[in-house]
Amino acid sequence: MFMLTRLSYNIRATAMAFFTLVGVLFVSFATPMGRNNDHAAFAVMLIGVILLGTASNYGESFTLTFLQRYPDTIVGAWSSGTGISGVAASLIFMGLTSAGLTEQQTFLVSTPVCIIYWLCFTVGMVAPHKVLVATRTDGKTEEIIIHCLDEDEETHIPMLREQTLARDDVVSVTEDYEIKMIMNFRGVSWRNSPAIRKPEPAKDDSEEGDGLYNPCCRFLCGCCSPTNGLRRWWREQGPDMILMHNTMLWFFFNLAVVYIAEYAAQLMAPFSFYCEPEWVDNFWVKNSYVVTQFCYQFGVLISRSSLLIVQIPYVGVLSIIQVINAICWVIQAKLLFIKSYDKKQQVNMSFILFAWMIFIGLMGGASYVNVFYLILQRSTKMRQKEEEEAVSKYLAAQGHDMGDHAAGSQHRDAAADMGAEKKLHATEPILADMAREHSDEMTQPSGGSDTGRTEPTHAQPYQLTVDNADMTDAEREEIEQIRRTLNDVWAARRETGMNIGAMYATIGITLGNLVCLVFTTRC
């Protein structure tokens, strides 16, 4: 999750699709690949499950980090998609097995989904990109995509423009870039992302200059030489990881708790239905576990699709409710207090458990989507605060009278009047159509063009302060450079926060399975 953050998103999507396909094939052909030996077949199946688990968890992680470039509410669309996939998978499995297909055949039927997944990300998905528009000799236009950090635009864009003009088939190239939605296959670079140059932190003698000032940092990296790759990686990524972890810990903790509880509950489902041997001909009895999983996924779908309708800031309440659900479900699995010795009554009582599992899915899905939304919201506010402080500090250093940080106050007032919640990148105008509820928060680019250069989007609050402070052009440019640098830094930090959230979700799933394992060995 944290080691391959600069790897191209297209390459990551390709790798995840490949691992998923190989994992499904390993699980499907475990017995023949193991030459009908139970131990060998189990080993092959275990490898397949590991590949599938890796693809699932890492795929979730890199998709969440990719979403940080969109409005915060877009995480609701992603969450809704995960809910739909769960419901569809349950229905497909239940339908195909009921139709007489073996589990191997059912798995093989799902293999085209791997290709569909890859096509959806690379071809079906579009993202905002900065482009220069070149006019060719035949009269057609060509979009030259800009792949660079915000802070490198001043040097990279003129160089890219000169290179394009040097082509024989190009007549002209626009001076300023435009923002356009381009499919990922063409818009997202297949090369590694450029490294972000972060400001050097002030060194403290107590830190011994090695950056290993946290106890767990010393435990992990202390045995390595200063030039070791792990230590270099920690020096680059560690401060941001610690910052995002500490500031978002409450959200991460609740996400893990909810996952532990809901997985412990749903995995106890096979042991929660009373059944006599002669009842297995009944559909609801025979498919009780599959129906329960469908009910869980249905609840997840509803709640993960609800972000635009209702937002829940008190995620701790959801965690408490889910823990109570898990405890009660474990008791049900142990004692079967919801049961009947009459077949018809037992089938009717099974619907109580089905409805209960829908409720568990509702709580789990609501926690998931709201936690990731709150992570993005808080990181946006933190970025705004850091930008405000950096500009105020710079103005004070230049001798401007800040009047108890009046500039910061003016910035807050101006931002409040304009909607307050501005996004990290200069892509708000085109993304406003994707999230209508954010339209009042977006600032249109200057110049009367919907696709023109959008630098004023972030600079306008400071423009008010600039006029009052009678700033020079050099100072204005320095403030703009501060904004660009923070755009890059906070884009990486938001990705780190989403990565940590995905990691906590994985930890919760793992612990939930362990809890279930402990109790099921005694059932």
Automatic annotation (TrEMBL):
<protein>
    <submittedName>
        <fullName>Battenin</fullName>
    </submittedName>
</protein>
<dbReference type="InterPro" id="IPR036259">
    <property type="entry name" value="MFS_trans_sf"/>
</dbReference>
<dbReference type="Pfam" id="PF02487">
    <property type="entry name" value="CLN3"/>
</dbReference>
<keyword id="KW-0472">Membrane</keyword>
<feature type="region of interest" description="Disordered">
    <location>
        <begin position="438"/>
        <end position="463"/>
    </location>
</feature>
<dbReference type="GO" id="GO:0016020">
    <property type="term" value="C:membrane"/>
</dbReference>
<feature type="transmembrane region" description="Helical">
    <location>
        <begin position="502"/>
        <end position="520"/>
    </location>
</feature>
<feature type="transmembrane region" description="Helical">
    <location>
        <begin position="283"/>
        <end position="302"/>
    </location>
</feature>
<keyword id="KW-1133">Transmembrane helix</keyword>
<keyword id="KW-0812">Transmembrane</keyword>
<feature type="transmembrane region" description="Helical">
    <location>
        <begin position="80"/>
        <end position="101"/>
    </location>
</feature>
<dbReference type="GO" id="GO:0012505">
    <property type="term" value="C:endomembrane system"/>
</dbReference>
<feature type="transmembrane region" description="Helical">
    <location>
        <begin position="352"/>
        <end position="376"/>
    </location>
</feature>
<feature type="transmembrane region" description="Helical">
    <location>
        <begin position="314"/>
        <end position="332"/>
    </location>
</feature>
<comment type="similarity">
    <text>Belongs to the battenin family.</text>
</comment>
<dbReference type="GO" id="GO:0005773">
    <property type="term" value="C:vacuole"/>
</dbReference>
<feature type="transmembrane region" description="Helical">
    <location>
        <begin position="40"/>
        <end position="59"/>
    </location>
</feature>
<feature type="transmembrane region" description="Helical">
    <location>
        <begin position="107"/>
        <end position="127"/>
    </location>
</feature>
<dbReference type="InterPro" id="IPR003492">
    <property type="entry name" value="Battenin_disease_Cln3"/>
</dbReference>
<feature type="transmembrane region" description="Helical">
    <location>
        <begin position="241"/>
        <end position="263"/>
    </location>
</feature>
